[in-house]
Amino acid sequence: MKREKTVFRQNATLAKARLANGFWNGAHKKANLENINNLNGEEEQIYRRVETALRDGDGNPLATLLDQDYMSNLDDAERQRYVLNMSFRVNKSIERYNKVC
Q1: Measured between alpha carbons, how far is 56 from 42 in angstroms, rounded to an integer?
Q2: pLDDT at 63 over 60
Q3: Among 31, 34, 79, 95, which residue carries the largest CB count within 10 Å?
Q4: How far is CA 29 from CA 9, 37, 68, 88, in A?
Q5: Tens digit of pLDDT for each residue in 24-42?
């Protein structure tokens, strides 16, 4: 029992040191940057397509982004989820476009 308590206390001391040194804040920021970098390429492609649609006056940039072949293979719930996800991404791109222009 005493050995377990010692190991537990050692682990607690190490965890307290990590908290005091800000280890988890740095790790959290690094993880967020990696996620942003992974998504950045795809988000940039969506932004470029939305930007082109808005400049050309196509009217509905969401309609140009939706993959009709992919949607035809989805059931109703999956289709709604797909459209909602894409509309969120299009709205983010439109907000970004409005800030730039």
Answers
A1: 21
A2: yes
A3: 79
A4: 28, 12, 37, 24
A5: 565 555 555 555 555 567 8
Angle between helices 2-20 and 23-56 (to 10 degrees): 50
**pTM listed for this prediction:** 0.58
Q: Which residue, among 55, 36, 56, has the nearest Cα to 44 in the 3D structure? A: 36
Could you tell me the two tokens for 68?
């009709």
The larger pLDDT score, comparing residue 45 to residue 41, is at 45
Residue ranges of domains in the chain: 2-100
Q: How far apart are the first and last CA of the chain?
A: 67
Please calculate the CA angle 69-74-76 and round it to the nearest 5 degrees.
125
The alpha helices in the chain, defined as continuous H runs, are 2-20, 23-56, 61-65, 68-72, 76-100
Cα 2 to its chain centre, rounded Å, is 46
Residue 94 neighbours by CB distance under 10 Å: 17
- Token pair 């800030």 is found at 99
